Amino acid sequence: MNTFNKQRLICLLKPATWCKHGYFVDIVGHPDAIFGSTDNNDELESWAVDYLFSVVEIKPEWLMRIALGEELINVHNQPVDVDEGNQIHLHEEYNSTVDMIDDGTTEYTHYHKIVKLIQQIFGYMVINDMRYGLLTSYTRTWFLHRQNEDPDILYISPSVDIDQSHTSTQPSFLECEVKIEKMRNYNRSRFLFGSVLGHGRSGVVLTAKLCGKTGALKLADLYKNKELLEEMLNEIRIYVGPLIDIQGMHIPKLLRFGVLHEAFVFILMTSAGISFAKLGNDVMKKEKLLAVEGLQAIHKRGVLHGDIRLENIMAEKNHLTGQSRVWWIDFALSKTGASAKDLDRELVELKRLLCLVDQKGAPDALLASQQNNLAVDVK
């Protein structure tokens, strides 16, 4: 085996790369980076990752040094090095703080950061069905592995320096990467996550089964993106608040919501069919009228939807009976207490989007004759 700068050079099974999470289409959440591969070098150059090996979180070295007790800050806000013998390994730091009670002190806030960091990357590993994860400061890297027998148990390696050489007692950094590539991932069904339904504001939407209920699962990073997190929490408030009585009628039913794997806020709702955007010209007039009726029901409860797009209107067609059901989804940008003027403006926006009014806002003949009895004539 060849050596170069005391590193052993190993041929990877497939072309592999570190890249942004967006280069793997079905990634869930927003990890800082991913480690994956492609079938050939041409695909690699086009940044189209086909196989995901691990998720990667990147933190600055100064933050890791402080979190691990390798560098302290004195009263003058200056760094103070800690003796080598006092250094704490990442897994020891996590185990010593995970059950710590919040006493409102700066010390608790300082140490709890490491708990959030581990919970975040563990959540990415679980939700993306990964056995391996990497936490890196570029200077050094920690390799994380979920136990085969009990995937809720997480192993964390000692730190591996980027220039670490192979010896009889330690692998090089490149050898650690190769080890990850050679391992197979767990079966996704083990965690009751299904296929990808689509992509929304918060990222990938999956089919999932939780507590015996199957539906569409939306996730928002608990620590990564505060804006998306607030949108998810807003959607939950809208579902369980003003729109609770029209769940299953004009909007999907909210099945479950909460925190998943200490890393995501999730919403599990009943599946709602196919969006108007995907149906295109196959959207029937009666389905458009049902969409108008649904928005009117939402407005009647004082809610402005806030994101009128074909992607947010779903239809379920029964080809045997010829009947359809239409649902409104995605209330991340919704507001309560909107003025009558704003509600009317949004309704006109929908009618124009569905070509139910002309550019001046006048309704077509069919809509004018049915707008007071929309539910009757949709057979």
Automatic annotation (TrEMBL):
Pfam families: Pkinase. Signal peptide: none annotated. The lineage of its organism: Eukaryota, Fungi, Fungi incertae sedis, Mucoromycota, Glomeromycotina. Residues 191-379 form the Protein kinase domain. It comes from the Eukaryota. GO terms for molecular function: ATP binding; protein kinase activity. InterPro entries: Kinase-like_dom_sf (IPR011009), Meiotic_Drive_Suppr_Kinase (IPR052396), Prot_kinase_dom (IPR000719). It comes from Paraglomus brasilianum. This is 6659_t:CDS:1.
